[in-house]
Amino acid sequence: MPVLNAKRSAPTDDKRWKIVETRMRRLGDRPEALIEALHAAQEAFGFLDDDALQYVSDILGVPPSKVYGVATFYSFFTLKPQGEHTCVVCMGTACYINGAKDILAGLHDKYGIKPRQTTADNKLSLLTARCVGACSLAPAVIIDGEAQGKIKPDELIARLEAM
Amino acid sequence: MSEMPAARPRPRPVTGHGGAAPEGPARVTASVCCAASCVSAQSDLILKKLGEKVAEAGLSDVAVKRVGCLGLCAAGPLIAIPETGRLLRGVTPDTLEPVVEELRSARPNGHKEAQEPFFSKQVRVATENMGTIDPEDIDDYQAHGGYEALRQVLTSMTPAEVRDEITRSGLRGRGGAGYGTGLKWTTVAKAQGSPKYVICNADEGDPGAFMDRSVLESDPYRVLEGMAIAAYAVEASEGYIYCRAEYPLAVARLRTAIRNAQRSGFLGSAIAETNFSFDIQVRLGAGAFVCGEETALIASIEGRRGTPRPRPPYPAVAGLWGKPTLINNVETYANVSSIVRNGAQWYSNIGAAGGKSKGTKVFALAGRVVNTGLVEVPMGMTLREIVYDIGGGIVDGRPFKAVQTGGPSGGCIPAEYLDMPVDYESLIKVGSFMGSGGMIIMDDTSCMVDVARYFMDFCREESCGKCPPCRVGTTELYRMLDKICSGEATMEDLEEMEKLAAIVQRTSLCGLGQGAPNPIFSTLRYFRDEYVAHIVDRVCPAGVCTIKPAEVAR
Ligand SMILES: Cc1cc2nc3c(=O)[nH]c(=O)nc-3n(C[C@H](O)[C@H](O)[C@H](O)COP(=O)(O)O)c2cc1C
Ligand code: FES
């Protein structure tokens, strides 16, 4: 592949970089596009690796240290790849007083993982959230992006097992 | 399907996403809730299937329509029939036959909503279209009075007149502190510097709160219209909506609404054929609670770490890119068009029992209450009316213990205050805080020390780390609360904790640290005996905490 400007070209010819590039260009490739760019990269690749951070840094002209600082400040961004499936357990107040702790305990008993961990077979990543806005259906979880309310630990495990 | 004329005076049935529209006027409408809570229980599939079934059954005078939040989220997925006041609860994609039968035989009876206190005791301003209109259809919004206020403002009022109207309405910020909205608009208008910016705070970080999400998912044009009126009033031409990334449906609806508003000439240049220009961009949050704080939010829009800075200068004077910036909450903007259309006097007459708090407030009822969901009530309504009449009381008939308001900076209000009016001043008087409007109802299954520890854990994790009182103080307070919860603390520890809490409150940089000790203060004020029980008797009265056996602890 002919490289005109080595620094500014995407790390690989994976088409998903186009999405990231477009999102940055729409905001004029300016430093303030940083968070939007990281969102785009994470949406496209599932997490932010060194290549992604470096690429965004090059295009927007933001020092790598700052890019890293922002990526680690915001809990929505993750620098580690996730398992095949993700389960986000809401730990907001409504869910907390309605049994979110029991859900975490149930998942720990079954899979031996705590929040921010992935099972050894790389099948399931467990995450927590501050409130997913489904408080009236507490306790709530999000399985692979789909919210599910009023869930009990054994029902959740059954659903995860069926995947 | 025949094309409908643009400005029909009645609700326009909607198609194109699985709904069904009749050829002529609809006899009855099945309004299917498609806000996040019901969608999480497959209401989008219900919408599609019901549309198909109604068509199959040949019900040519029945409309099936997507609407926003119907309020009673606990009983979802919900379908409302606005012509008969029926609310169908717990519908599933496999139980649609009875719904079709009901639609076949339903006769309009003049009732608009279900005849029960959950609905009849509410007063809807910010949520007036919620559950009625299709949230993505700009024509439907206009058919319900949408954009009348913006037109009126642009063609017959000066910016100063708009500001005066808002000031006289008594509207106060719905994002937490309750600062006078008209006053804030006037400060921005008078501030030197251009361009000026208008920001909508849709970060909704308080856990257990979902008012702003519901407004954005159910009636996004109302927020855009409110922002446009504000921009005219402060003479700004660019706006941002900072929305948390945890709300994908709200973000999607906002983006659709912005596109449609641009196409219809309500955003962009020459709005409503005048020389006023204003456009809005969406910016996503990324899971940092502190970014709800206005200076941190501005840093985040600028692409930086969301750390607050000392105020003054306030954003009204030096905000985004150092320029004068108006920042208001979603619900604050959602009230604006109604105030313009109906007049300041009308608004300030609502909620007369609320003293200096005028109008209505939207609350998210959650926790151990029967009718969890979204409600809008006049300021000054009593807690008891909200919890028992509207909320339907406590789950399983258990005793009410406390209601938590104000999120992590708020407090827990005990049963002895059930008859207090809910307004900004009264809440502060009892040691709590209006906050953004989350109300979490607790029964005897909650331990108040555990609740205090829960919030401190939250603040400790969300502290941005910039100022030591908050960074170190919240961690230390958490450790002390944890010690109490596990039965390892002494009364001297409790005293120490109270002292430290006072220091953190006094010396932190922003509202996060200043408010963090509040849950401790309020639980100590009303539930000190529970603290003492953990320390002296080494028992958790609610049976929540795991007390370490005495020989291990001492
Ligand atoms: C830690 C912290 C978090 C906040 N979170 C929010 C929030 O999620 N939403 C919001 O509208 N205001 C939030 N605020 C209040 C804002 O700083 C600001 O006062 C508000 O957006 C102003 O709008 P209003 O006058 O319409 O209420 C927060 C404040 C603090 C200190
Ligand atoms: S507290 Fe769990 S969804 Fe809000």
Q: Helices and strands in order, then pairings?
A:
The complex is a heterodimer of chains A (163) and B (554).
Chain A (H helix, E strand, L loop, with lengths): L15 H11 L7 H12 L4 H11 L3 H10 L11 E6 L2 H4 L3 H12 L5 E2 L5 E6 L11 E3 L2 E3 L4 H9 L2
Parallel strand pairs in A: 1-3
Antiparallel strand pairs in A: 1-4, 2-3, 4-5
Helix pairs in contact in A: 1-2, 2-3, 3-4, 6-7
Chain B lengths: L27 E6 L2 H4 L3 H14 L5 E6 L11 E3 L4 E3 L8 H9 L11 H4 L17 H6 L4 H9 L2 H11 L11 H10 L6 E6 L8 H8 L1 H15 L3 E6 L4 H16 L15 E6 L9 H8 L23 E5 H13 L1 H6 L10 E8 L5 E6 L4 H8 L9 E6 L5 E4 L9 H6 L8 E6 L4 H15 L5 H18 L5 H17 L3 H5 L2 H20 L12 H4 L1
Parallel strand pairs in B: 1-2, 5-6, 5-8, 6-7, 9-13
Antiparallel strand pairs in B: 1-3, 3-4, 9-10, 11-12, 11-13
The structure holds flavin mononucleotide and FE2/S2 (inorganic) cluster.
The site of FE2/S2 (inorganic) cluster (FES) has 12 residues of chain A, from helix 5.
Summarize the structure.
Chain A is an alpha+beta fold and 163 residues long.
What are its keywords?
heterodimer; A: 163 residues; Glutaredoxin; 5-stranded mixed sheet; 12% strand; B: 554 residues; Rossmann fold; Ubiquitin-like (UB roll); 4-stranded mixed sheet; 22 helices; 13 strands; binds flavin mononucleotide; binds FE2/S2 (inorganic) cluster
What does this structure look like?
The complex is a heterodimer of chains A (163) and B (554). With 163 residues, chain A is an alpha+beta fold. Chain A folds into 2 domains: 16-73; 85-162, Glutaredoxin, CATH 3.40.30.10. Chain A is 42% helix and 12% strand. Chain A has a 5-stranded mixed β-sheet with strand order 2-3-1-4-5, with helices on one face. Chain A starts with 15 loop residues before the first helix and ends with a helix. Mean pLDDT of chain A is 92; it is low at 1-6. Chain B has 554 residues and is an alpha/beta fold. Chain B is 41% helix and 13% strand. Chain B has helices at 36-39, 43-56, 97-105, 117-120, 138-143, 148-156, 159-169, 181-190, 211-218, 220-234, 248-263, 294-301, 330-342, 344-349, 383-390, 424-429, 448-462, 468-485, 491-507, 511-515, 518-537, 550-553, and strands at residues 28-33, 62-67, 79-81, 86-88, 197-202, 238-243, 279-284, 325-329, 360-367, 373-378, 400-405, 411-414, 438-443. In chain B, helix 11 links the parallel strand 6 (238-243) and strand 7 (279-284). In chain B, helix 6 (148-156) packs across helix 13, helix 7 crosses helix 10 and helix 18 packs antiparallel against helix 19. Chain B is globular. The termini of chain B are far apart. At the A-B interface, helix 2, helix 4, helix 5 and strand 5 of A face helix 1, strand 9, strand 13 and helix 17 of B. Bound molecules: flavin mononucleotide and FE2/S2 (inorganic) cluster. Flavin mononucleotide binds next to strand 8 and helix 20 of chain B.
